[in-house]
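> example.struct
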């Protein structure tokens, strides 16, 4: 693990804040090297305060309607020590409640998943964390959470000065990450995913799939093996096989080829609302 740098003692200046925008905004219009915008923000933030890993996600400003909501959202996880990261566009099935309740449910589920992923990736690291959360409920709602593996010698909790730095940068961090998320939502990758997501949403509702079964629809579509699905969702291979068997039974299909052929190659065979 990298040594924690000395805590920045001086105040955040307007020049520091301007540097954040100068690093990111031009890349929205000209990014020939295809740099990851969220990583560029992260590199800037690490100059002000240290953390072992962080994640962020944004709510869908226009979620699907119905008794249940299948919500696509962005999730970003980054470990500055190992230069190891992943991002994911995934789905969660939530009861159709108020936007605030829905987002709070997302925060809880995402936090639990991030911790499970962290402990799987770094089994030798401490199981407790110091964390600092930044969030906004203004649509699209957004949350960012910065973690340190908790240590007692020396104590590495966030200092009052570091929390002050976060607070000073908060409106700018939120604005920049919302800008990045908006850019991602208009990317070809997300629009392709969104099209498939709408089909998955229809399949789940039409055939009364459970939450666990619904979550596997994109996994089947993108061709993940049972073993890969198991690792991505932190469940056993036998559980994956059971869910997929139920999906095939409920949708009247025999196997993956039949399932994909029925719902994704022949759109005239499914009603998309």
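> example.seq
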């Amino acid at each position: 693990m990298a040594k924690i740098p000395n805590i920045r003692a001086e105040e955040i200046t307007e020049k520091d804040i301007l540097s954040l925008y100068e690093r990111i905004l031009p890349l929205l219009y000209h990014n020939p090297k295809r740099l990851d915008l969220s990583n560029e923000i992260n590199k800037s933030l690490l100059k002000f305060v240290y953390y072992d890993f962080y994640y962020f996600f944004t709510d869908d400003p226009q979620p699907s309607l119905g008794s249940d909501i299948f919500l696509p959202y962005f999730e970003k996880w980054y470990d500055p020590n190992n230069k190891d990261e992943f991002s994911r566009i995934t789905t969660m099935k939530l009861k159709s409640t108020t936007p605030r309740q829905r987002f709070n449910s997302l925060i809880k589920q995402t936090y639990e998943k991030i911790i499970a992923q962290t402990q799987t990736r770094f089994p030798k690291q401490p199981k407790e964390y110091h964390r600092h959360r930044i969030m906004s409920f203004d649509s699209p709602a957004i949350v960012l959470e910065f973690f340190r593996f908790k240590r007692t010698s020396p104590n590495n909790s966030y200092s009052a000065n570091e929390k002050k730095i976060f607070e000073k940068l908060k409106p700018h961090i939120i604005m920049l990450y919302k800008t990045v998320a908006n850019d991602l939502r208009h990317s070809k990758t997300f629009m392709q995913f969104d099209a498939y997501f709408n089909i998955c949403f229809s399949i789940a509702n039409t055939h009364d799939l459970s939450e666990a079964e619904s979550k596997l629809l994109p996994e089947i579509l993108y061709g993940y093996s049972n073993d890969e699905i198991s690792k991505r969702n932190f469940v056993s291979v036998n559980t994956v096989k059971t869910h997929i068997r139920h999906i095939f039974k409920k949708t009247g299909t025999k196997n993956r080829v039949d399932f994909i052929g029925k719902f994704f190659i022949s759109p005239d065979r499914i009603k998309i609302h």
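> remarks
The longest strand covers residues 68-79.
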